[in-house]
Each structure stands twice: as structure tokens, then as C-alpha cells.
Amino acid sequence: xxxxxxxxxxxxxxxxxFATPNTxxxxxxxxxxxxxxxxxxxxxxxxxxxxxxxSQKMQLGKQLEIEGFRLRDDTTGALDPGQAKVEALSExxxxxxxxxxxxxxxxxxxxxxxxxxxxxxxxxxxxxxKTSWSATFTRSGANTTxxxx
Length: 149
Prior knowledge:
This protein is mainly beta. It has one helix spanning 81-90; strands spanning 11-16, 24-26, 30-43, 55-69, 99-105, 110-120, 132-139, 144-147. Strands 1, 2, 3, 4, 5, 6, 7 and 8 form an eight-stranded antiparallel sheet that branches. The chain is globular and about 70 Å long. The protein starts with 10 loop residues before the first strand and ends with a strand.
């Protein structure tokens, strides 16, 4: 089979319900995402380096940013359940600030699973806009995977 480009819209995102472990809630309203990578390095330059910088990678970091529209039920006013769970996790501190998020292409057989803390982005919009919503997950520890059911 030939390698193909795939649609970003076919990537699914879910957050674990921290009140009911192993219960996953789809996060709705997303229309863009980005996964970023960072590293920490140690300077290993010595006099013997003769003026040429030397370093080693010591630590990896990853972030997942999701953006889209804030969704709410027009009758009850309740938020999209996934967005509501993300917002609840963003208010927690210390050990309780860590939750799990997972994501995968709709045809993948494995989820990428991160333990992460989350920071909410700005909400808003102009006169002719729908209200925006975003969140940034910062991974804590290594990636894991889980089979998609």
C-alpha cells in the first residue's frame, strides 16, 4: 500500500474521567490541533572542544494543543462533556492536576496515551464569530499506548 497524506480532522481526542478511571470522554468542537516537541540539553563543551559547542540531549517534553469552538447545550447550558472534563482538570493542583488524554487517527489500532496537566487557552470571538475554546496538554512522563476497542 502506498503512503498517503491523511486528514487532520480524522484524529480523535478523548480525556479520561478522573472521577471514573478508564472511562473516556470524546472532546468535541475541535477544528485544529498541534503537537509540539522540546528538549533540554546539557552543555558538555570543554577547553578541548577548541571553541566548538558540544551538548547532549538530556530531557524530552511534549505538548498537545487543541483548539476549536466552545460547545454548549442550547437547552440546559451544559458544556460539551469532554470540554467540561478538560476545564475541570485545569482547575486541579498537585498530584490531582495530572489526568490522561489520548488521541489517534480514526483508523489506528492504538491510542497514544499521555499523562498530562492542562492549561486552558483564551476564549472569545468577534461580532460575527462563534466562541473559541482551546486547551494545551503538557505531557508528564513517557508516552504509552492502548489498544483501540
